[in-house]
Amino acid sequence: MNDISPRDYAQSGGSERVLRSNVLSPGGASGSVHPEPFTLMTLLTRILRHPWVLLFCVVAATATSVALALNSPRYFRAEVLVTQSRSEGSGGGQSANANLLGTISTVLGGSLFQSSNLGFLTEYMKSRTFLKAFIQAYNIKQFLFLDKWDIAQQRWKEGEEPTLEDAYVLFKSLLTVVPNPGSGIISVRIEWTDRERAAEWANILIRYINESFKKSAIEESEEKRSFLDQELGKTSYVEVRHALAGLYETEVKNAMMARVQNDYVFKVVDFAEVPKATDPVRPERRKIVMAGFLIGLF
Fold this sequence. Notes:
Layout: H1 6-11, H2 17-24, H3 40-49, H4 51-71, E1 76-84, H5 98-108, H6 118-125, H7 128-137, H8 141-144, E2 149-150, E3 155-156, H9 164-174, E4 175-180, E5 185-192, H10 195-234, H11 238-260, E6 266-270, H12 285-297
Antiparallel strand pairs: 1-5, 1-6, 2-3, 4-5
Helix pairs in contact: 4-12, 5-11, 7-9, 10-11
């Protein structure tokens, strides 16, 4: 400790201010106080000093998470398993003039829907064109936006009708298509708050895609036969007429098969059943409550 001269003491009026200043700040200079570094141990020490604060935070966060879990809408998953139907290929191999037949078939265009193209089928099922048509065909939009639908009047509330694009975006978020190239099985899943409607939509989605492809195939076959009829009347070459006749016969068979085959694209392996009321897929209430507890604890 620095000594204080009699002159300094006398000028201070005998005050101990100079003494304290020199004791706290070596050399008479004013020093700075450094705060204690914040560590996990420091946090735990402060929490243990105020256990009621910790208890309040844990209870409040847990209660909030419980309320959130109980009030969140429950979604149920309905799943239908399908596989591709085995359809006979069109075109080739039956005519002696296979090259000529293949060339004409290329000019006409191959089948619009190739059942062997797994990637195309799964993507088409989620496409904007298909889903919008499906939503309109079965009046699904009103069930997707029940809060905007006047059930008593059977019409949309004033100024609240959603667009078809809104319905498509929402429905696509509920739909999951999972192909398994190894087994050839495709899992089509729909998650919705109404478990009965989820199962219904999953099943009729497969029926609708079969009907859509079937109708398109029949229309395509009719167009091709009309074209072939015209070409048969224009040519007198025996080989060409023979090839055209073979194509015409093939198109007749394709149209006949399409009309009698209900499972035109997909064959159902396992229909979707109504999920149990006790088996929602979300929200996962236990995880929500546990997260709330941990948030309150830390």
